[in-house]
Amino acid sequence: MTARTPARTPRRTPAGAPRRLRLPSWLPVDGYILALLGTVALAALLPASGTAAQVAEGASTGAVALLFFLYGARLSTREALDGLKHWRLHLTVLACTFLLFPVLGLAARGLVPTVLTPQLYGGLLFLCLVPSTIQSSIAFTSIARGNVPAAICAGSFSSLAGIVLTPLLAALLLGGSAGGLSADGLLKIVLQLLVPFLAGQFLRRWVGGLLVRHKKVLGLVDRGSILLVVYTAFSQGMVAGIWHLVTPARLGLLLAAEAVLLAAMLALTWYGAGRLGFGRADRVAIQFAGSKKSLAAGLPMASVLFGPQAALAVLPLMLFHQMQLMVCAVIAKRRARDPEDDPGTDGTPGTPVTPAVGRITPTPTTG
After folding, report:
1. What stretch of H or E contains 355?
2. Minimum mean pLDDT among 91-100, 221-230, 348-357: which range?
3. DSSP string of 52-67?
C-alpha cells in the first residue's frame, strides 16, 4: 500500500496581522513600475508649482546626490579589480552599452518626425547612452545558468563608466537639449553625480558594513528617491505644458521603435559574442548585461541633464525598462533549458557555471 501524503494546510494570517499586498504571479508587470506610473499620475493630477516646486526640486537634487553616494559606497573596488581578469568580456559589454546602443540611437534619427517627435527621439537617444543594470543582469544570468561573477563585474564597470560617459555622450550627441558642454552644466554634473559617488567610495570602508546590515531599508530609500525624482520631473513637465506633444498614437510608435531596438541588441549581443569566441556562460552574461539599460542611473542623470524637459527624456527609458524585464525573463527561462556549457567558436572551453539553486526572482526595478 502506498502511504498517503498528508494534505498541506494553507497558511493562515494570524488575526490582527497586516496582510502583505502581492501582485499575482501571472501579472508580467513589475510592482515598482506600477509605483512609478502612480507617481506620474499624481504629478499629472497634483503637480508641484510655485514654492512647492522649489521645495520638490531641492529635495530631488538632494535625492540624486544621496543615490550616487550610495552607489559609490556599495561598489566594491576589490571585486571590480578582480574582475579585470576577464577583460575581453567587460570590454565587449562596455562596447555594446556605450558604442552599439548609441549608434543604433543615432540611426533612429530617421524616424523623426514621421514616427517620433524630436522630444521623444531625444529621450530614445538618451536611453541608448545610459549604463547597464546590475541587479537584473545578475538575476537573469543566474536563471539562465550563465557566468554570474562576470555579470556582477560587467554591471559594476558599466555603472562606474556611465557616471562619466553618459553625461559626456549626452552633451555631445544631444547638444542643447542636454545642456550642452557649458562650464555650468559640467560643474552641475560633477557636484551632483561624481562628487557624491567618490565620497561613497572613500567612506566605503567605514559605512560598508552598515549598508549591508540595513540593505532592505536602503532599498526603500533608493526607490523612494527615484519616485521623488520622477514626481519632480513630471510636475515640471505638466507646469510647462509639454504633454500635448505626446499622443496615444505616438506612444504606440515609440513602443514599436523600442521593441525593434531591444530585439536588435539581444541578437547582436548573443550572436556577436559567439562570433568573438565566447562560451555559452559568457554569452549569457554578455547578452543580459549588454542589452539592458538602468532606470536607477538614468532617471537621476536625466533630471540633472535636462531640467524641466526631463519628463519626456525619461519616458522612453521607463517604457524600455519594463519591456526589457518582460522579454529577458522569458529568454532567461528558455536559456535555463539549454545543454551544459559548450566551447566557444574558437575552441576555447567556456567558463564553468554553477547552476542557480532554486528560483531567483529578479528584483531589478532600481537596477
Report:
1. none
2. 348-357
3. HHHHHHHHHHHHHHHH
Instruction: Give the integer Cα–Cα distance in Å for 194 and 196.
Output: 6
Distances, alpha carbon 262 to alpha carbons 134, 166, 303, 347, in Å? 17, 19, 24, 29
- Cis-peptide, bond into residue 196, ω within 30° of zero: no
The amino acid sitting at 275 is R
Q: Which residue has the cell 500635448?
A: 244
Q: What is the pLDDT of residues 56-69, one digit of tens each?
A: 888 888 887 887 78
Distance CA 155, CA 133 (A): 6
DSSP string, 203-258: HHHHHHHHHHHTHHHHHHHHHHHHHHHHHHHHHHHHHHT-GGG--HHHHHHHHHHH
Q: Is the dihedral of CA 111, 113, 116, 118 positive or negative?
A: positive
Q: How far apart are CA 163 and CA 155, in angstroms?
A: 13
CA-closest candidate to residue 126, choices 169, 165, 162, 188:
169
Cα distance between residue 311 and residue 78, in whole Å: 37
| Cell 537584473 belongs to residue | 136
All three cell numbers of 151: 555579470
Instruction: Report helix angle 248-275 to 280-290, nearest 10.
Output: 150
Residue with cell 568573438: 276
Signed CA dihedral, 143, 149, 151, 155: sign only: positive
Q: How far apart are CA 12 and CA 241, in angstroms?
A: 50
Contact yes or no for 71/159 (Cβ under 8 A): yes
Q: Give the tens place of pLDDT for each residue, 80-127.
A: 666 667 889 999 999 999 999 999 999 999 999 999 988 899 999 999
- Please report the sign of the dihedral spanned by the C-alpha atoms of residue 244, residue 249, residue 255, residue 257: negative
Global pTM reads: 0.73
Spatial distance between the Cα atoms of 286 and 86, rounded to a whole number of angstroms: 12
CB 123 within 8 A of CB 312: yes
